[in-house]
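TL;DR need structure tokens for one chain.
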Amino acid sequence: MTIYNCFFLMLNQTKYTFMLTAQTVGLPFLNPYLEREADFSNGVNFAVSDATALPSFFLANYNIVNPVTNSSLDVQLGWMQTYFNFTCTTRKDCAQKLKNALFIVGEIGLNDIRYALFQAGKSIEFVKTTLLPPIIQTIKHAVNEVINQGAIRVVVPGNFPIGCFPLFLTSLQTNDTTAYDELNCLKEVNNLSMYQNSLLQQAVQELNQENPNAVIVYADYYSAFLWVFRNAALLGFDLASRQKSCCGIGGSYNFDLLRFCGNPGVPVCPNPNKSISWDGIHLTQRTYGFMTQWLIRDILAKVSTQSFELI
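>> reply
TL;DR here they are.
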């Protein structure tokens, strides 16, 4: 099984997951688009770390600022369009070149949520009612844009159960035991992720109806992560540390935004392969590896090899 071309419009969570997928089929990692002299024969990575789905001007209307980058999803789409304008002579030529390509659009929206909650002090209800609808529409627009470029195979990942992540567990920590579920994850935050995913799955259904010549598949990151999380001990993870950052310091979850992984004096755990979370936001490579296995099985079970053949 080979993927001739793969194109990413996403955040770094998906980058790690699907780069491991590339490894399993013997492909090299994809080079970033802005590395202009790079080899793009296997595909292009348009992703930007810490990017938001929504553009900066939209977020600024609600006093939400991305302190890291202004390269939101629309910027990445612009790069993609520039790339195909340069590499394709005609629309038909583009369709021919992309007939075996796989496009990954997402996972995106997590940074919009965390900046709203922690940087701007917004409520979860605000995120649910004000941010999620335009986030979903932005993702839907992005999928339509890649299909307009000639894509016929698109994977759209959902959000994680972020209420299990050290970032959210630390920032929203409470003495109210009813705020936590049986896995000691924050129920309200995970409910937000599930709501976001339900909206996204509805959008994927609509996209498939609107684009009968393409196959758009929802990648269930939520269930994939929970499978790893629930089976942590069986998979060789340290059960006592499954909600703690490997690279981090302080508090119940070994996480402190003011002393983030990579800062001087912030230690790394002795064996990252025993940890699920790498730095409180991202997962360890071993976690992504198990998620990748689950996702490949799940995605291939959803569609026939005739309609979604990874050639």
